[in-house]
Protein backbone atom coordinates (compact mmCIF):
# COMPACT_ATOMS: atom_id res chain seq x y z
CA UNK A 1 0.00 0.00 0.00
CA UNK A 2 1.22 3.51 -0.81
CA UNK A 3 0.76 5.69 2.29
CA UNK A 4 1.04 9.48 2.50
CA UNK A 5 2.21 10.58 5.97
CA UNK A 6 2.10 14.13 7.27
CA UNK A 7 4.34 14.75 10.27
CA UNK A 8 6.57 12.01 8.91
CA UNK A 9 9.70 13.50 10.46
CA UNK A 10 8.07 14.15 13.86
CA UNK A 11 8.44 12.12 17.04
CA UNK A 12 5.62 9.65 16.37
CA UNK A 13 5.85 10.05 12.60
CA UNK A 14 9.40 8.74 12.39
CA UNK A 15 8.44 5.56 14.23
CA UNK A 16 5.33 5.13 12.08
CA UNK A 17 7.34 5.50 8.87
CA UNK A 18 9.82 2.88 10.13
CA UNK A 19 7.01 0.43 10.90
CA UNK A 20 5.23 1.08 7.60
CA UNK A 21 8.41 0.39 5.63
CA UNK A 22 9.21 -2.70 7.69
CA UNK A 23 5.68 -3.96 6.98
CA UNK A 24 6.23 -3.66 3.21
CA UNK A 25 4.32 -0.45 2.53
CA UNK A 26 5.51 2.39 0.32
CA UNK A 27 5.68 5.75 2.08
CA UNK A 28 5.61 9.35 0.91
CA UNK A 29 6.35 11.71 3.77
CA UNK A 30 5.57 15.42 3.95
CA UNK A 31 8.80 17.30 4.76
CA UNK A 32 9.27 21.02 5.22
CA UNK A 33 13.07 21.11 5.59
CA UNK A 34 16.09 19.74 3.75
CA UNK A 35 17.14 17.76 6.84
CA UNK A 36 13.72 16.15 7.20
CA UNK A 37 13.64 15.28 3.50
CA UNK A 38 17.12 13.73 3.66
CA UNK A 39 16.21 11.67 6.73
CA UNK A 40 13.11 10.29 5.02
CA UNK A 41 15.00 9.46 1.85
CA UNK A 42 17.69 7.69 3.88
CA UNK A 43 15.00 5.40 5.30
CA UNK A 44 13.78 4.56 1.79
CA UNK A 45 10.69 6.78 1.80
CA UNK A 46 9.64 9.18 -0.89
CA UNK A 47 9.36 12.89 -0.09
CA UNK A 48 6.79 15.57 -0.80
CA UNK A 49 8.10 18.97 0.20
CA UNK A 50 5.64 21.21 2.04
CA UNK A 51 4.03 21.97 5.39
CA UNK A 52 0.58 22.28 6.97
CA UNK A 53 -0.02 25.60 5.22
CA UNK A 54 0.53 24.03 1.79
CA UNK A 55 -3.03 22.82 1.34
CA UNK A 56 -2.65 22.18 -2.39
CA UNK A 57 0.35 19.96 -1.68
CA UNK A 58 -1.49 18.11 1.07
CA UNK A 59 -4.46 17.49 -1.22
CA UNK A 60 -2.15 16.24 -3.96
CA UNK A 61 -0.25 13.97 -1.59
CA UNK A 62 -3.45 12.41 -0.28
CA UNK A 63 -4.94 12.01 -3.76
CA UNK A 64 -1.85 10.19 -5.03
CA UNK A 65 -1.76 7.62 -2.21
CA UNK A 66 -3.82 4.59 -1.23
CA UNK A 67 -4.17 5.86 2.34
CA UNK A 68 -3.23 8.93 4.39
CA UNK A 69 -1.92 9.08 7.96
CA UNK A 70 -2.17 12.63 9.27
CA UNK A 71 0.17 13.18 12.23
CA UNK A 72 1.38 16.75 11.68
CA UNK A 73 0.38 19.58 14.00
CA UNK A 74 1.93 22.98 14.59
CA UNK A 75 1.78 22.60 18.41
CA UNK A 76 2.15 26.34 18.83
CA UNK A 77 1.21 26.57 22.51
CA UNK A 78 1.53 30.36 22.42
CA UNK A 79 -1.05 30.61 19.64
CA UNK A 80 -3.39 27.64 19.88
CA UNK A 81 -6.01 29.35 17.73
CA UNK A 82 -3.58 29.31 14.80
CA UNK A 83 -2.63 25.67 15.43
CA UNK A 84 -6.29 24.64 15.62
CA UNK A 85 -7.15 26.52 12.42
CA UNK A 86 -4.24 24.97 10.52
CA UNK A 87 -5.21 21.51 11.74
CA UNK A 88 -8.82 21.91 10.62
CA UNK A 89 -7.79 23.30 7.23
CA UNK A 90 -5.41 20.38 6.64
CA UNK A 91 -7.98 17.73 7.59
CA UNK A 92 -10.59 19.44 5.42
CA UNK A 93 -8.16 19.42 2.49
CA UNK A 94 -7.46 15.70 2.94
CA UNK A 95 -11.17 14.95 3.19
CA UNK A 96 -11.82 16.85 -0.03
CA UNK A 97 -9.07 14.90 -1.80
CA UNK A 98 -10.36 11.51 -0.61
CA UNK A 99 -14.10 12.09 -1.02
CA UNK A 100 -15.74 9.24 -2.91
CA UNK A 101 -12.58 7.09 -3.03
CA UNK A 102 -13.25 4.77 -0.04
CA UNK A 103 -9.61 5.32 0.96
CA UNK A 104 -8.44 5.47 4.54
CA UNK A 105 -7.61 8.58 6.55
CA UNK A 106 -6.02 7.95 9.94
CA UNK A 107 -5.55 11.11 11.96
CA UNK A 108 -3.87 11.95 15.23
CA UNK A 109 -6.13 12.87 18.11
CA UNK A 110 -5.80 12.80 21.88
CA UNK A 111 -7.35 11.64 25.13
CA UNK A 112 -7.69 15.02 26.85
CA UNK A 113 -11.23 16.05 27.66
CA UNK A 114 -12.83 12.65 27.09
CA UNK A 115 -13.95 11.58 30.55
CA UNK A 116 -12.06 13.23 33.38
CA UNK A 117 -12.04 11.23 36.60
CA UNK A 118 -13.17 8.02 34.90
CA UNK A 119 -11.52 5.43 32.67
CA UNK A 120 -12.13 6.62 29.11
CA UNK A 121 -12.77 4.00 26.45
CA UNK A 122 -12.99 3.90 22.69
CA UNK A 123 -16.78 4.20 23.00
CA UNK A 124 -16.45 7.73 24.40
CA UNK A 125 -17.05 10.31 21.69
CA UNK A 126 -14.86 13.38 21.56
CA UNK A 127 -16.63 16.41 23.07
CA UNK A 128 -14.83 18.77 20.69
CA UNK A 129 -16.73 20.16 17.73
CA UNK A 130 -16.14 23.10 15.44
CA UNK A 131 -13.13 25.13 14.36
CA UNK A 132 -12.61 26.84 17.73
CA UNK A 133 -12.33 23.55 19.65
CA UNK A 134 -9.01 21.88 20.53
CA UNK A 135 -7.35 20.50 17.38
CA UNK A 136 -10.04 22.35 15.47
CA UNK A 137 -12.55 19.62 16.34
CA UNK A 138 -10.92 17.46 13.67
CA UNK A 139 -11.66 14.06 15.19
CA UNK A 140 -15.39 14.59 14.82
CA UNK A 141 -14.89 16.38 11.50
CA UNK A 142 -12.95 13.43 10.08
CA UNK A 143 -15.28 10.75 11.44
CA UNK A 144 -18.06 12.55 9.60
CA UNK A 145 -16.24 11.86 6.33
CA UNK A 146 -17.75 8.35 6.31
CA UNK A 147 -20.79 9.91 4.66
CA UNK A 148 -18.51 11.30 1.93
CA UNK A 149 -17.02 7.95 0.97
CA UNK A 150 -13.88 8.12 3.12
CA UNK A 151 -12.68 5.55 5.69
CA UNK A 152 -11.62 7.65 8.71
CA UNK A 153 -9.95 6.27 11.84
CA UNK A 154 -9.14 8.36 14.93
CA UNK A 155 -5.75 7.72 16.55
CA UNK A 156 -5.96 8.82 20.17
CA UNK A 157 -2.40 9.04 21.46
CA UNK A 158 -1.45 9.04 25.12
CA UNK A 159 -0.09 12.39 26.31
CA UNK A 160 3.03 10.50 27.28
CA UNK A 161 4.10 8.77 24.07
CA UNK A 162 7.56 8.25 25.46
CA UNK A 163 11.01 6.98 24.56
CA UNK A 164 14.59 8.11 24.04
CA UNK A 165 14.54 11.28 21.94
CA UNK A 166 11.06 12.40 23.02
CA UNK A 167 10.79 16.19 23.18
CA UNK A 168 7.11 16.28 24.18
CA UNK A 169 5.26 16.70 27.45
CA UNK A 170 7.53 14.63 29.70
CA UNK A 171 10.62 16.34 28.30
CA UNK A 172 8.96 19.69 29.07
CA UNK A 173 8.27 18.59 32.65
CA UNK A 174 11.90 17.55 33.02
CA UNK A 175 13.08 20.94 31.79
CA UNK A 176 10.75 22.76 34.20
CA UNK A 177 12.03 20.63 37.08
CA UNK A 178 15.65 21.36 36.23
CA UNK A 179 14.98 25.07 35.83
CA UNK A 180 13.08 25.36 39.12
CA UNK A 181 15.25 22.98 41.10
CA UNK A 182 12.30 20.87 42.18
CA UNK A 183 10.20 18.19 40.51
CA UNK A 184 6.63 19.24 41.16
CA UNK A 185 3.27 17.58 40.83
CA UNK A 186 -0.15 19.30 40.92
CA UNK A 187 -2.17 19.12 44.14
CA UNK A 188 -2.12 15.64 45.64
CA UNK A 189 -0.62 14.14 42.47
CA UNK A 190 -3.41 11.59 42.18
CA UNK A 191 -4.54 12.57 38.69
CA UNK A 192 -3.43 10.09 36.04
CA UNK A 193 -1.81 10.19 32.62
CA UNK A 194 -1.97 7.22 30.24
CA UNK A 195 1.32 6.27 28.63
CA UNK A 196 2.67 4.27 25.69
CA UNK A 197 6.12 3.69 24.24
CA UNK A 198 6.54 5.30 20.83
CA UNK A 199 7.37 2.00 19.11
CA UNK A 200 4.17 0.43 20.48
CA UNK A 201 2.20 3.48 19.32
CA UNK A 202 3.63 3.15 15.81
CA UNK A 203 2.73 -0.53 15.67
CA UNK A 204 -0.84 0.32 16.64
CA UNK A 205 -1.06 2.90 13.84
CA UNK A 206 0.08 0.44 11.18
CA UNK A 207 -2.25 -2.28 12.46
CA UNK A 208 -5.03 0.32 12.44
CA UNK A 209 -4.28 1.07 8.81
CA UNK A 210 -4.46 -2.61 7.95
CA UNK A 211 -7.37 -3.71 10.14
CA UNK A 212 -9.52 -0.93 11.60
CA UNK A 213 -12.98 -0.32 10.13
CA UNK A 214 -14.22 3.09 9.05
CA UNK A 215 -15.20 5.25 12.01
CA UNK A 216 -13.03 3.41 14.54
CA UNK A 217 -11.46 5.17 17.51
CA UNK A 218 -8.15 3.62 18.54
CA UNK A 219 -6.40 4.22 21.86
CA UNK A 220 -2.59 4.18 21.84
CA UNK A 221 -2.44 3.29 25.53
CA UNK A 222 -0.18 0.77 27.27
CA UNK A 223 -0.53 2.06 30.85
CA UNK A 224 -4.03 3.22 31.70
CA UNK A 225 -3.00 5.91 34.15
CA UNK A 226 0.32 6.79 35.77
CA UNK A 227 -0.24 9.15 38.75
CA UNK A 228 1.43 12.51 38.25
CA UNK A 229 3.12 12.19 41.64
CA UNK A 230 4.79 8.98 40.43
CA UNK A 231 5.94 10.79 37.28
CA UNK A 232 7.34 13.65 39.35
CA UNK A 233 9.15 11.24 41.67
CA UNK A 234 10.81 9.54 38.69
CA UNK A 235 11.91 12.91 37.30
CA UNK A 236 13.26 13.79 40.73
CA UNK A 237 15.34 10.59 40.78
CA UNK A 238 16.58 11.18 37.25
CA UNK A 239 17.94 14.63 38.04
CA UNK A 240 18.61 14.27 41.78
CA UNK A 241 15.99 16.87 42.63
CA UNK A 242 13.58 17.20 45.55
CA UNK A 243 9.93 16.35 44.84
CA UNK A 244 7.11 18.57 46.05
CA UNK A 245 3.41 19.22 45.64
CA UNK A 246 2.42 22.39 43.81
CA UNK A 247 -0.81 23.92 45.21
CA UNK A 248 -3.60 23.99 42.67
CA UNK A 249 -3.73 27.78 42.70
CA UNK A 250 -0.05 27.92 41.72
CA UNK A 251 -0.01 25.23 39.01
CA UNK A 252 -0.15 27.64 36.08
CA UNK A 253 2.55 29.85 37.60
CA UNK A 254 4.83 26.89 38.28
CA UNK A 255 4.32 24.80 35.13
CA UNK A 256 3.32 27.43 32.56
CA UNK A 257 1.49 26.24 29.44
CA UNK A 258 1.68 22.56 30.43
CA UNK A 259 0.06 23.11 33.83
CA UNK A 260 -3.49 22.52 32.61
CA UNK A 261 -2.50 19.25 30.94
CA UNK A 262 -0.51 18.01 33.93
CA UNK A 263 -3.47 18.75 36.21
CA UNK A 264 -5.91 16.76 34.06
CA UNK A 265 -7.05 13.26 34.94
CA UNK A 266 -6.94 11.36 31.65
CA UNK A 267 -6.96 7.68 32.57
CA UNK A 268 -7.90 5.62 29.52
CA UNK A 269 -8.25 2.02 28.43
CA UNK A 270 -7.12 0.37 25.19
CA UNK A 271 -8.85 -2.95 25.78
CA UNK A 272 -11.08 -2.62 22.71
CA UNK A 273 -8.19 -1.46 20.52
CA UNK A 274 -6.02 -4.39 21.57
CA UNK A 275 -8.84 -6.83 20.90
CA UNK A 276 -9.71 -5.32 17.52
CA UNK A 277 -6.16 -5.14 16.17
CA UNK A 278 -4.48 -8.03 17.98
CA UNK A 279 -2.11 -5.38 19.38
CA UNK A 280 -0.17 -6.00 22.59
CA UNK A 281 2.15 -3.23 23.86
CA UNK A 282 5.52 -4.65 24.87
CA UNK A 283 7.77 -1.61 25.25
CA UNK A 284 9.24 -0.09 28.41
CA UNK A 285 6.93 1.71 30.81
CA UNK A 286 7.11 5.47 31.24
CA UNK A 287 8.89 5.13 34.59
CA UNK A 288 11.30 2.58 33.08
CA UNK A 289 12.22 5.15 30.42
CA UNK A 290 12.67 8.02 32.88
CA UNK A 291 14.70 5.84 35.27
CA UNK A 292 16.71 4.48 32.34
CA UNK A 293 17.91 7.90 31.21
CA UNK A 294 15.64 8.48 28.20
CA UNK A 295 15.13 12.07 29.33
CA UNK A 296 18.70 12.81 30.39
CA UNK A 297 20.35 16.14 29.66
CA UNK A 298 22.15 14.70 26.63
CA UNK A 299 18.89 13.68 24.91
Automatic annotation (TrEMBL):
CDD domains per UniProt: SDR_a7 (cd05262)
Entry GO terms, CC: cytoplasm
SUPFAM superfamilies assigned to the protein according to its UniProt record, in alphabetical order: NAD(P)-binding Rossmann-fold domains (SSF51735)
GO terms, molecular function: aldehyde dehydrogenase (NAD+) activity
Gene3D superfamilies xref list: NAD(P)-binding Rossmann-like Domain
Pfam families per record: Epimerase
Occurrences of domain NAD-dependent epimerase/dehydratase (ranges): 3-82
PANTHER family: NAD(P)-BINDING DOMAIN-CONTAINING PROTEIN-RELATED, PROTEIN YEEZ
Record's protein name: Oxidoreductase
Source lineage: Bacteria, Bacillati, Actinomycetota, Actinomycetes, Mycobacteriales
